[in-house]
Design goal:
This protein has 344 residues and is an alpha/beta fold. The protein has two domains: 2-148 and 313-343, Medium-chain alcohol dehydrogenases, catalytic domain (Quinone Oxidoreductase, Chain A, domain 1); 152-290, Rossmann fold (3-Layer(aba) Sandwich), CATH 3.40.50.720. Helices cover 28% and strands 26% of the residues. Helix 9 (278-283) links the parallel strand 15 (257-265) and strand 16. The chain is globular. It starts with a strand and ends with a strand.
């Protein structure tokens, strides 16, 4: 089969479009003919240096058609079904780790990720556990479906499970144009929140408004993000900050929060090391949370909203399978809104 893989880490020239063996189905798995896959910053990190297995097929987000089902998969899926896949593979059967046995699969001790620890979806075919597959609405194209899994699961877990959004919350979503940020806008708006968001380009802010943002801030055009946020909230600050940026905005994130505010972080694309002014915490009761693991339950809950049409995949640009290198460069340059999708 044709696939995009790496034999070593490096620049975009390390990406190889070529032939790889067809995957072999294992107990509990289904074989998918991939219809589309999508990019994440994680793919860039793997290609640039964090990958540990070679040759390795990239692609953590994907959707496709079921073409084969393991006899013992224990699933209602049928050949021909259209599905998207949660890439987090956890314990199954009777041999469960202590966390899965206790019902906390988000902390599975044997967890592996398709596209990271296992071959991914930038290929004509891929295998996945049947339990990780979720039906795609009939009217949804594979390109949109492939844009959903990681952004959807991450944002739902952070905002619903961790931050426990309430309809009366003011929410600041950093990085409106990112896959996670654009999904966070949708989820917060779906919950009835007032949504404030940021980007460095006015055209991205215009897009953010289309997807539900109430107030937008071009961070390149303001002297202080936190002062601007407080002006928009009668001097109070926001109830929730949802951040996938990291070091560059950490201090301002803290200053944007109101008393008892909640900050949940799920990405460090700008860096992971930054000084922290502890007097902010000393002076105000704030709640700081990381993303951490995500459960099958939260993915299933989020997918109910997809099935109802409340949440959509946002496709920024599409590329052919042999154009993954160009997609990596576009992601690096950040000149897009939503997700970069590979059509198969």
């Amino acid at each position: 089969m044709k696939a995009v893989y790496i034999n070593e880490t490096g620049g975009t020239d390390a990406l190889i479009y070529g032939d790889r063996p067809d995957p072999e189905i294992a107990p509990g798995e289904v074989l998918l003919r991939v219809g589309a896959s999508a990019l994440n910053h994680l793919d860039l990190n793997l290609r640039a240096g964090s990958a540990r297995r070679f040759p390795h097929i990239l692609g953590c987000d994907f959707a496709g058609e079921v073409v084969q089902i393991s006899p013992d998969a224990g699933t209602d899926l049928q050949v021909g079904d259209r599905v998207l896949v949660d890439n987090r593979v956890k314990c199954g059967g009777h041999n469960l780790c202590q966390h899965c046995a206790a019902g906390h699969d988000q902390w599975c001790a044997r967890q592996q990720r398709i596209g990271v620890d296992l071959d991914g979806g930038h290929a004509e075919y891929v295998v996945a556990p049947a339990i990780n597959c979720y039906a795609v609405p009939d009217e949804m194209q594979f390109t949109e479906a492939a844009a959903l899994p990681i952004a959807l699961h991450t944002s739902w877990h952070c905002l619903i499970t961790q931050a426990k959004l309430q309809p009366w919350d003011d929410v600041l979503v950093q990085a409106a144009g990112s896959g996670v940020g654009s999904m966070g806008i949708q989820i917060a708006k779906m919950m009835g929140c007032r949504v404030i968001t940021t980007a460095g380009s006015n055209w991205k802010l215009d897009e953010a408004k289309k997807w539900g943002a109430d107030e937008v801030i071009n961070y390149r055009e303001v002297d202080s993000l936190s002062d601007t946020v407080r002006e928009l909230t009668d001097g109070q600050g926001v109830d929730v900050v949802f951040d996938c940026v990291g070091a560059d905005v950490w201090h301002e994130n803290m200053l944007c929060l109101k008393q008892e505010g909640r900050l949940v972080i799920t990405g460090v694309t700008s860096g992971s090391q930054t000084p922290m002014d502890l007097s902010i915490l000393h002076g105000r009761p704030l709640h700081l949370m990381g993303s951490g693991g995500r459960s099958r339950r939260t993915m299933a809950d989020a997918m109910k909203m997809v099935q109802q049409g409340a949440l959509r995949g946002i496709v920024g640009r599409t590329f052919p399978l042999d154009g993954v290198g160009e997609a990596h460069q576009v992601m690096h340059d950040r000149d897009f809104f939503g997700k970069l999708v590979i059509e198969h």
